[in-house]
Structures are given as C-alpha cells and as structure tokens.
Specification:
CATH superfamily of the largest domain in chain B: MetI-like
CATH class of the largest domain in chain B: Mainly Alpha
Helix content of chain A: 55-70%
CATH topology of chain A: MetI-like fold
Number of domains of chain A: 1
Radius of gyration of chain A: 25 Å
Number of strands of chain A: 2
Oligomer: heterodimer
Mean pLDDT of chain A: 85
CATH superfamily of chain A: MetI-like
Distance between the termini of chain B: 48 Å
Shape of chain B: globular
Shape of chain A: globular
Number of helices of chain B: 15
Strand order of the largest sheet of chain A: 1-2
Number of domains of chain B: 2
Strand content of chain B: under 5%
Order of helices and strands of chain A: HHEEHHHHHHHHHHHH
Helix content of chain B: over 70%
Strand content of chain A: under 5%
Distance between the termini of chain A: 6 Å
Number of helices of chain A: 14
Number of strands of chain B: 0
Largest sheet of chain B: none
Order of helices and strands of chain B: HHHHHHHHHHHHHHH
CATH class of chain A: Mainly Alpha
Chain lengths: ~325, ~290
C-alpha cells in the first residue's frame, strides 16, 4: 500500500491530466483538517496533558508525577495493576477462544461440498451487529439467578443458577465469555477469507500425494492462515484495552465486585472523566497518563504491523 | 468412470474413500454449526420474546413463548420514555456523520489516488495510521475542546468526533478502489474537456458506489452503537442518543424487566433489520476494518 504506487497509471496521461499539488490540496484539506483537529491533535495533546495537574485555567506542570503516582502510589497503583492484569486475562480469553473456535468454524464453513454455508455465516455474525451495551444488559438479566433460577431448579439444572456476576471468582470469566460470544463472528469471517484464499492446486497436489484431510489441515491450511492470527491479535488488543461498555453494563464502571472486573477502559473513565468512586472528582492528568500508557503500548504493536503489511504489497 | 473423475475435480480436498466419509463429515459439520447458530441466537431470541411477556410471566415462564403476547412494554417505553426523540437524535448523528465521512473521504481519496508526490505519500501515511489507533485515547483533550467550543450537551459535539474517526478507514478503502479504476476513463473525459471536479461527481462517484457502501456500513454500526462519547459529552435529556437513553431507562425500570427488554429490543432492532436485509454487505463491511491493515 504505497501511495506513490497508487498514482502510477495516471502519469501516462500527459501534462493536463497531472495537476500540481497546489491544486489537489484543496480536495485533501477538508478531510485532513477534521482528522488533524479532532483526532491527531487531541491524541498527541493528551500525551502532553499527562504531564500536568488540574484542569483548564488552573493547570500546573508536574513532570512525570502522574506516572509515578499511577505506577507506584499505594492506592492508585494497586488499582492500575489490578486493571492491567484483568485486561490481559480478558485479552487471553479472546485470543484463545476466538482463534481456536474461529479457525474451527471457518474450516467447516469453507467446505466446498457443504450446503447452507451462507446461512450459517449470516446467523453466526448477528451478535456482532448488536451494541455491546445491549448485549451486556441482556446477559446481566439472564445471568441473574432471580430470573430463571426457579425454572432451572425444576428441570434439574440448579447448578446453572448462581450469582455469576456477583462473585469475585466468576465475574471476570463470565464477562470475558460474553464478550467472546459477541465478537466471534469477526475472526471467523477473517479465517473464512483466509481459507478461501488458499490455492486449490496446492491441496489437489497434496491429495494426489496421498495427504488425507487431517494432514492437509495441519500441514497446509493452518500454516497458511496463521498470519490472520497476527492481525486478529492486534485488533483484539486494541479493542480489549479500550473495552468499557461491557463492564459498564454488566458490572458498573467500578468493576464490581470489588474491582474484580475493572479493566483499563473503566479505570480510564473513572480517573480521567467521572472521578474515582466515591469522591467523584476526575483527575484529567492521571487519566491522560493512563491513556498515554495504552497509546504507547498500541504504537509498539501497531507500527511494526503496519510496516510489515505495507512492505508485503 | 467419467462422472467420478469430474467429482474428483470439483472436490479436490476430498480423500479417496470419500463417498461415505464426506457424507458423515457433513452431518457432523451441520450438527456443530447448528449448535453454534443456536448459541449465537438463543440470547437474542430470549431478549425479543421476553419483551412481549408480562412482568409476572417473565419469571414463571422464562424460556417459552409468551402465553399472552403483550405490546404494553413497547408502547409504554415509547410513550413514557419519549423514545422517538432519542431515535431521531441517533438517526441524525448517524446520517450527518456518514454523509460527511463519505463526502470528505471520497474527495480526499480522489486526490490522493491521482496526486503523486512525496508530500501526498506523507499525508496518506499520516491519515492511515489513525485506522489502528482508537480515538478514545484522545478523550481527555476532546472533552476540554468541546467544553471550550460550548458544544457539550449538543449533538454537535458528536459529529466532528465520529467524522474524524471514520476518515482514516474511508480514505484507505476509497483510495485503493479509485486507484483500481481503469485509467482510460479519465483520459477520455479530458478529451471532452470535462473539469476534474465534474469527473469526480459524474464518473468517479457512481463507479465507487460499492466501496462507499462498504465504508458506510463499516461506520454505521459503531456510530449507532457508540456509548462512550454520548455518555461523556451529553447530559441533557433532549439531546440523548438511543444508547445513552438505554442506560438511563435500564436504571429507571430496574425492577420491570420486560420493559427493559423492550427498550433493549427497540434499540437493537434498526441495525438487526438492516443486517437481515443485506447481511452479505454487512459481513464484508464490518470485516473490512479487520483486513484494512
């Protein structure tokens, strides 16, 4: 994806077809301005704000004090590392389930002689179109033992009726599973595209050589779709380190019970925007320090990936 | 003999002793896919059917179809909660943002696909890098900017954020698409003496319609479903979006579950209906973000 490569065919057209940059810039400027003013600038300026204390008007430069507080302060750092660890657990659930199930279902869906693949794909993808907030409230209700508890007891499934979201030991796991349920469609479709892109001749040759389905899957197909896993890892990482709605709806922005489900996204919301419970006074500088930490982590993963995919084309 | 050979050609992946085994495998695949379809649909099904039950029936009969279907939950949610107002706000936000993303994005992509220079390459990379960075990171500064502009508590605070958020992907998809158009198209038009802006509006725009649809769907779902920015920017009843209103109604009706479910169903319905009408484009559009890197 090189922008210079894009314009190559146009050159043949001659002088009048190639106006100068001074002409084209007017086409580019509106989009560039909106992007620069409302995305690039506030993103970069948030980094600067992480070095300050207080809000507009009464802002004071404090150097790296916000980071020191975030990483080492007795109370704040405990919350931060707790949320940081929880987010990695959340991420691990997604990576494990989405990749294993995604590859599995995509492999079933790309079988050429099976009918109805399109219908299955449409159904599996439905959860991806629902708002995370709606999913969260919906599951919160279904997981409430008051709702279906008596019925489940009657049909001998009483073990399913537990305060899943109320116990430290299960809350984060259950919420992670709900989130995996919602998003499984996207990695599955990416793997479907990956399997469909495999050269038929390769499989035919393998089949003539005597490779059975099992060998073809492990030795040929799987290695060829492994690059998709890298892409999914980046996307999942970006969305998981910003996940907020699912915790907000299922466990309140405080990550209840007792911060067991607190993620970086909810921590950022409390420190930077809403204020830590129960005082409720936001510290924009501290919030900016949280978002800058995430920003730095993302850049470490995103820029090499972008370079790698650009280089390939 | 010939027939069997042809079948072999069509299904190169099938093993030699295929007839029975392929049949068996497919039954096995269907069973697993039906199970997964059930898992994917069950919660949505529960959401919808329970919204039609009475407050008492929802506990007595949580899984079955309603004994007595009632629209009361929906009508009271629409009437008491002023749902139509929230709906209008969400629709305005989506329509205005999408229109601006497509207009600004296609204009910019048209130029980036034709202008060849070091500067245009740099601009392109600067914009594209935004595809991978979530705008949430900029929240603290954006909140102060909106406060300074006096846009808090209005829909105007949402437009620029959503437009900025949609621009990188739209430029990536559209630039690539415009670049793929045959060059003769432009040459012929130049002979006719058409102005470049007219070529854009009368030749390029109609041709890139499929790509515009992908961009529109890619942005439509996250904008309609966004909670974060309305939650932070808007606190005035009249300016709330559907999703923001859902958080409020969820608290208000906390003990009246069927009513909460009716509100949730109403908020999810527009996108689900649109999805059912054009699921192919949705899958393509929503995974476009995934393969965009």
């Amino acid at each position: 994806m090189d922008a210079r490569a894009i314009t190559r065919p146009i050159r043949r057209g001659g002088g009048s077809i190639r106006p100068s940059g001074a002409y084209w810039i007017w086409y580019i400027l509106p989009a560039l301005l909106v992007y620069a003013v409302f995305m690039a600038y506030p993103m970069l300026d948030s980094v600067r704000l992480s070095l300050y204390e207080g809000t507009t008007g009464a802002r004071r430069f404090v150097g790296v004090a916000n980071y020191v507080k975030l990483f080492t302060d007795a109370v704040v750092s405990q919350r931060f590392w707790n949320a940081f660890g929880n987010t990695w657990v959340f991420f691990a659930f997604h990576m494990l389930l989405q990749n294993v199930l995604g590859i599995f279902f995509a492999h079933l869906l790309t079988n050429r002689t099976m009918r109805g693949s399109g219908i299955y794909q449409s159904i599996i993808f439905i959860p991806c179109t629902i708002a995370v907030l709606v999913t969260g409230y919906m599951f919160k209700m279904m997981l409430n033992p008051m709702w279906a508890g008596p019925t489940l007891k009657n049909i001998g499934l009483a073990f399913l009726s537990r305060p899943w979201l109320g116990e430290r030991s299960t809350a984060l796991t259950v919420i992670s599973l709900v989130s995996c349920w919602q998003w499984l469609g996207i990695p599955t479709m990416m793997f479907v595209a990956g399997f469909q892109g495999i050269d038929e001749d390769l499989l035919e040759a393998a089949s003539i050589e005597g490779a059975n389905n099992w060998h073809q899957f492990w030795r040929i197909k799987l290695p060829l779709v492994i690059p998709v896993v890298g892409m999914i890892a980046i996307l999942t990482f970006v969305s998981n380190f910003n996940a907020f709605d699912v915790i907000y709806s299922m466990a309140t922005p405080n990550g209840s019970p007792d911060y067991a489900t607190d993620l970086i996204g909810t921590l950022f919301y409390r420190y930077g925007v809403a204020g830590e419970h129960p005082i409720g006074i936001p510290e924009p500088g501290l919030g900016a320090a949280v978002s800058t930490t995430v920003f730095a982590m993302l850049l470490c993963g995103v820029i090499p990936t972008l370079r790698a995919t650009r280089g390939k084309e | 003999m010939t027939r069997s050979f042809e079948r072999e050609r069509r299904t190169p992946a099938a093993p030699r002793t295929r007839s029975m085994r392929v049949m068996n495998m497919h039954i096995f695949s269907h069973v697993l896919l039906v199970v997964w379809s059930f898992v994917a649909l069950f919660p949505v099904w529960m959401l919808i059917i329970n919204a039609f039950k009475s407050k008492r029936e929802i506990y007595a009969n949580p899984f079955g179809l309603p004994g007595a279907w009632t629209l009361e939950n929906f009508t009271s949610a629409i009437r008491d909660a002023n749902y139509l107002n929230y709906f209008r706000n969400s629709l305005t936000v989506v329509v205005v943002s999408l229109f601006m993303i497509l207009a600004l994005g296609s204009l910019c992509a048209y130029a980036l696909a034709h202008w060849r220079s070091r500067l245009s390459g740099a601009i392109y990379f600067f914009i594209i890098i935004g595809m991978m960075l979530p705008i949430k990171i900029a929240t603290i500064r954006l909140l102060e900017m909106m406060k300074a502009f006096g846009l808090l508590n209005t829909l105007w605070s949402l437009f620029p954020v959503y437009i900025a958020m949609g621009i990188p992907t739209s430029i990536f998809i559209l630039t690539e698409f415009i670049h793929g158009l045959p060059n003769e198209l432009y040459e012929a038009s130049f002979v006719d003496g058409a102005a470049r802006l007219r070529i854009y509006s009368s030749i390029v725009l109609p041709l890139i319609r499929p790509a515009l649809a992908t961009v529109a769907i890619y942005n439509l779902v996250p904008i309609w479903n966004d909670l974060w920015f309305p939650l932070i920017f808007i606190n005035k009843e009249a300016q709330k979006t559907v999703l923001l209103a859902v958080t409020k109604l969820q608290g208000q009706y906390a003990t009246d579950w069927p009513k909460v479910l009716a509100v949730l169903t109403l908020s999810a319905l527009p996108v689900i209906l649109l999805y059912l009408m054009m699921s192919k484009q949705f899958i393509k559009g929503l995974t476009a973000g995934a393969v965009k890197g």
